[in-house]
Amino acid sequence: MRKLITIIALFILSSCSSVPRQQNLNYEGNIALDRGNYSVAIQKFHRALNESVSASDDQYHAIAMYGLGRAYGYLCQFKESEKWLLKSISARESLPNTKHAYLSQNIMELARLYKANKEYSKANIQFERAILILEELDIRESDPIGYAGVLEDFMFTLRAAGNNKRAKEISNIIAKLKSDNVNKPAYFVAKQYPDNCKE
To answer: Is 159 exposed, middle or buried (0-12, 13-18, 19+ CB in 10 A)?
Structure first.
């Protein structure tokens, strides 16, 4: 019995070691982020960033920077958050999308960061960029209600910036998405950045 337990333990350890360190660290960073342990998340993402450089892993290099941008944003460190999100966007623009990493994600995070920081004109530029990509990904079919939520954020920043004409156009799209998909859930719901920060 003891021999069997030892074999199982060795199998588990070998399975864990087969996953790249930068991937494990990014996973741990995301867990910390979901739990609100933002300082821990930052440590994990920085380690993932270093490991991705050592491994010449461009995908996880961009992913770690995206994680850093989010974690700093939730800690109200907007300048640091903006820096990492801009770096993540720059890195991801030269990379193909993967199952769990899309350029539109990074751009939308930056838009929401600007929204929270009341930089509405900057937010609108990023929302427009993200929406073009989301439309190409056929988001209206895959997650219409989640997309409506994204557009509601965009509508808010448009109105705040005084662009009521474009806000009305977006409002009409939201209404149609909701009326055409009454019983569908939202698969994506954005976690908003705090909008009462004092840096």
So the answer is: middle
